[in-house]
Design brief:
The chain is an all-beta fold. The chain has strands at residues 5-6, 9-10, 17-19, 23-24, 36-44, 49-58, 65-67, 69-73, 82-84, 87-89, 94-98, 102-103, 109-110, 114-119, 122-127, 131-132. Helices cover 0% and strands 48% of the residues.
């Protein structure tokens, strides 16, 4: 079954977010300038649900980046994967591509998500952190 394609939304993190480190996409590197950073996050809730998010940050003050394609791989057997729509990311903005929330149960270890970002035909990955749903 193919996963859905979703748009990008604002990001507002709290203590329920477990994120890996930002990765700078090599296709956005320009000497002396900042590029596009992205990372994988897992969000857990109090009723035993979890979702993964591809977070993209445009750290360049001069121009936008065109994100050709994004992908979130998370709890695939439960339907937690998603493709992210192609989009421009304006200077200074941070946006998230949210995978569906999947039921994993309370007091459960949730596998770390990984995300992919494609720019100029080059796909790179970032890895998140494992998390536990609250008891």
């Amino acid at each position: 079954m193919a996963s859905d394609t979703v748009g990008w939304k604002t990001v507002s993190t709290n203590s329920n977010w477990y994120c890996g480190a930002y990765v700078k996409h090599s296709e956005t590197y320009e000497p002396g300038m900042f590029g596009l950073n992205f990372k994988a996050c897992t969000v857990v809730n109090s009723v035993g649900g979890a979702q993964a998010v591809l977070v993209a940050q445009n750290a360049n003050e001069l121009h936008l980046w065109y994100m050709q394609r994004g992908r979130v791989v998370f709890e695939s057997q439960l339907g937690g994967d998603v493709w992210c729509a192609a989009s421009n990311l304006e200077s200074g903005l941070t946006r998230g591509c949210y995978a569906p929330t999947v039921p994993v149960g309370k007091c459960q270890r949730v596998d770390a998500a990984y995300v992919e970002m494609t720019i100029n035909g080059v796909t790179e990955r970032a890895y998140g952190r494992a998390a536990y749903t609250p008891c």
